[in-house]
Design goal:
Largest interface: A-B, 71 and 71 residues
CATH topology of the largest domain in chain A: Metallo-beta-lactamase, Chain A
Low-confidence stretches of chain A: none
Largest sheet of chain A: 8 strands, mixed
Number of helices of chain A: 16
Strand content of chain A: 25-35%
Oligomer: homodimer
CATH architecture of the largest domain in chain A: 4-Layer Sandwich
CATH class of the largest domain in chain A: Alpha Beta
CATH superfamily of the largest domain in chain A: Ribonuclease Z/Hydroxyacylglutathione hydrolase-like
Chain lengths: 558, 558
């Protein structure tokens, strides 16, 4: 029985994506308090950077919903970007619910699940564009929007407590090159039906106007490629399939043949072709064939626009790419945005290219990038169509969500709620009410290990990164007599004027004195010896280096 | 005798500032090859970031000129920014030459030298604006330009081999608020005399148009402060004295009293007042007085616009500042640029402020910042005035210098040379010729220690940051028998599913087996034992963590 009774409630809980751009994990629950049935909308990751050394992937902690896996009816993925589907394989074993997505997304989901050895286990339901999903109290319709990847979907979620519009990622582009234009009709119709709450993308809320059309990028890229006389490499995110289409058109218009460079380019192109895209494109060539072409007849489509050291473009810039070489007079067009935090690595890449005589052209110089997310005018249009009673901004940092809620109020939306991850928000005709706060941490993929962000490993490594490490070992008998050592090693510490040998000697003497100063009753006690040595070395180190290295002490009992 | 003879040559050697923005160290030499007399123009630092953990300050390696200190005639500082004078105190003991600067710069130089205990040792020569310096073959005139700090000077350097214009940092601002407008007359006159080479700022060579006038910022800031109803904090670089003036005017216009927050604000204001600036400003108040004022009567002028964790604004945002509190409805105006690499810390600061209900307004939202460096139209104007035979772009990354040399060629400059640090460039009527490459590394201030960047400490720490550390110790007799241990400690490693205790046991077993597998002739050998243990642990670690931690082994002989 799905009909509402007095005790049923509808709640929204973001576990990721509220407070950061990326790493989306949204929950909707309906039912009596504490006995709700749940759906997950999107299950994404975000990526580490120089502030998270050794952690490449960061995921929302799914603990809250994993504990309710029995009441989890399904996982719906709005589109195939990593920040919306990248955590599926890692967490599915704890969730074990069926997965729903449209064909392009599902193609890439299968790819990922196969890699993780889960393909045979996960019930997959491929939904057509505009299709319907029925899960307990949730009746859902996919609504086609526009974004930078094929098949971006909003979800209309009908519940006994009201209708929700979950936008996913979107923009308004009358001429998107890939996929249909925004299905405004469906949005207007839902608005007329009456939308209780809209959960909406906040990425570009600080940017006035519109994100701009991909068609504009195509025109400029066609022109810009036409101006080049040498080889052209276009650097873009492989996941920006619209941009790949744009680059392919720019190549063909200028009589250049396309060569894909980078593993994820091939992977995305596979998915795109699976849904019928690029069907009319001229055949691509491989890297060896491309190298044999005249310089003005080839266009490389490359990964690595963010200066990722192992991606194709960085290897090309350093001259270490096996088949792709760029020479003076060749050009690299950065058809992508600079992700905050990546500036230094991007600039290093661009400097290396410039040093090699390669022309570097970016989105600042020429109009060769547009965002896939809505700017303020597009948000205004969406609110005009949907006219929700409640605005719940997601997909943004704290300041984005607050600004978006403010914008919604200016647009006469009755209730705005800028959530934090873990907020349980009850949605009803009375508005949005915070009814609980549930665990909502982050999980790091630290090497091969999934570990809570607050688990301490990264914090310890940052201490090591700042101040280095000293290890000390000594062998002590039960009377407290030293039989061997102390010996000390340094790692990550600069050489002082007196030289490494002299300070190691000083450290060892200090450790030895510390052992000899241990009070009689503690002598020979391993722990007391360890503490005494550690404290003494810790006191000395700042006087040598002006910083506090990690001090590791091993006392071997004899 | 300073007159040129056939063997004399004029050379320019950048040791810093060519390949990076900041850290300027320029040398000019004149005389017979290998026996030149030298001057230094500027001696600056740059600052570390998340890519250089534990290193806050980076300096050019002065080794080449330190080895020629006997032939060093003087150190001329063009202006008081850290990237032009911040390394003086650290390196002066190796250089021991007299220092020349105009009054504002000299005030801050004295401050720094006093801190370093060098004030009584360094011969200081305060030069008036437009003043002359005569050092051996170098006859120099200071030319007043415009920048974001008082008294920015270009240097006209007359040598027997020709006239050089060393621009320092500059822009063209007809209404600069602080200081005189650019002394175009002097530049035009020098151009008519005939400039052999111009060594010129490249910071904004990728930006079309002009940097914009400080007067425009003043108008907007007056308006914006007028719109605010709560407390206003303006975040700016203390070294941007022009901006401090602008903020003070915006406060006074709106009936607000200024309160300086942050040590460097007070320091810069002291220097500014020393040269007669702010003489007509209303008295500032201290933090306690400011807290007692009505919210709409105060304007805080704060350091910390880059999200530096220990600066005033971060402490205000976290609520830990002793006297300055901001509440919902108060506003922070970021009147500064985002330095690449600082995005994450700035956004974190802005999110914290937004979370506290504070309005955050930056240069993207309102016109409250202009650069102090020349954009392309200003560069064009400078080349039209100076008409040098040779263009030497400095103060930029590689791609800036290359683009600037290209621009100069478009402007009909006969010779362009985009130098690398350490290039020794001979300047003559024939053009610019690379005649040598001299050592030009970087020095890190790593804690209290000055150490070559390539010294290894930072590289080791980055390894630790990525993969953590394992230390192992054991006590072994001369027959190779283990008497105690192996014991192992971990630091910076995530907990695997089997738990820390289990993997430590596994590591110790592995170490023990490694010792027992040592060939007979090596048994009991310390180094062989250490290597065997290290190799075994190194092989095991990736299977547990999927990464390669640093493995430190201490074998204690018995």
């Amino acid at each position: 029985m799905n009909s509402a009774n007095r005790k049923d409630r509808l709640v929204f809980v973001p576990l990721g994506g509220s407070g950061e751009i990326g790493m989306n994990l949204n929950l909707y629950g309906f039912g009596p308090e504490g006995r709700e049935k749940w759906i997950i909308v999107d299950l994404g990751v975000t990526f580490g950077d120089t502030t998270t050394p050794g952690v490449e992937v960061i995921m929302p902690d799914p603990q809250f919903i994993a504990e309710r896996a029995d009441d989890l009816l399904g996982i719906i993925l709005t589109h195939a970007h990593e920040d919306h589907m990248g955590a599926l394989a890692a967490f599915w074993p704890d969730l074990r619910a069926p997965v729903y997505a449209t064909p392009f997304t599902m193609y890439l989901v299968r790819d990922r699940l196969a890699e993780a050895g889960l393909l045979d286990e996960v019930p997959l339901h491929e939904i057509p564009l505009g299709g319907h999903i029925s899960l307990g109290p949730f009746e859902m319709d996919m609504v086609t929007l526009t974004h930078s990847i094929p098949e971006p979907n909003a979800l209309l979620i009908r519940t006994p407590a009201g209708l929700i519009l979950h936008t996913g990622d979107w923009k308004i582009d009358p001429d998107p090159l890939i996929g249909e234009a925004t299905d405004a009709k469906a949005l207007i119709k839902a608005g007329e039906e009456g939308i209780l709450a809209m959960v909406c993308d906040s990425t570009n809320v600080f940017t006035e106007g519109e994100a701009g059309s991909e068609a504009g990028v195509r025109d400029e890229l066609i022109k810009l490629v036409g101006e080049q006389e040498g080889r052209v490499a276009v650097a873009a995110f492989a996941s920006n399939v619209a941009r790949l289409q744009t680059a392919v058109e720019a190549a063909e218009y200028n009589g250049r043949t396309v060569c894909l460079v980078g593993r994820s380019m091939h992977r995305m192109m596979g998915a795109a072709r699976h849904v019928g895209l690029f069907a009319n494109a001229k055949p691509f060539i491989d890297e060896e064939e491309a190298a044999a072409l005249p310089r003005n007849k080839v266009l490389y489509l490359c990964t690595g626009s963010q200066g990722e050291p192992r991606a194709a473009l960085s290897r090309i810039a350093s001259g270490s790419h096996r088949h792709v070489k760029l020479s003076p007079g060749d050009s690299v067009l950065f058809s992508s945005r600079v992700i905050p935090g990546n500036e230094k690595s991007i600039f290093a890449l661009q400097n290396a290219l410039a040093s090699a005589g390669v022309n570097v052209i970016g989105e600042k110089e020429r109009h060769i990038h547009v965002s896939g997310h809505p700017c303020r005018d597009e948000l205004r249009q969406m609110y005009a169509w949907a006219r929700p009673k409640i605005a719940i901004p997601v997909h943004g940092e704290r300041r984005h969500l607050i600004e978006h809620a403010k914008l919604a109020r200016e647009l006469q939306v009755a209730h705005g709620f800028a959530p934090r991850n873990g907020d349980m928000i009850k949605l009803s005709e009375e508005g949005a009410e915070l009814v609980d706060e549930v665990p909502a941490g982050r999980i790091h993929r630290d090497g091969d290990i999934l570990t809570p962000a607050e688990g301490g490993a990264l914090r310890e490594r940052k201490k090591l990164a700042f101040a280095g490490a000293i290890s000390v070992a000594l062998a002590v008998d039960s009377a407290g007599r030293i039989h061997s050592g102390p010996e000390a090693n340094l790692f990550g510490l600069a050489e002082p004027a007196e030289g490494f040998d002299a300070v190691i000697e000083q450290l060892c003497e200090t450790a030895q004195n510390a052992v000899q100063s241990i009070s009689k009753q503690d002598r020979g006690d391993e722990l007391a010896t360890e503490n005494a040595v550690r404290q003494a070395v810790r006191r000395l180190a700042p006087r040598i280096w002006g910083k506090r290295p990690h001090v590791d002490v091993i006392v071997l009992p004899l």
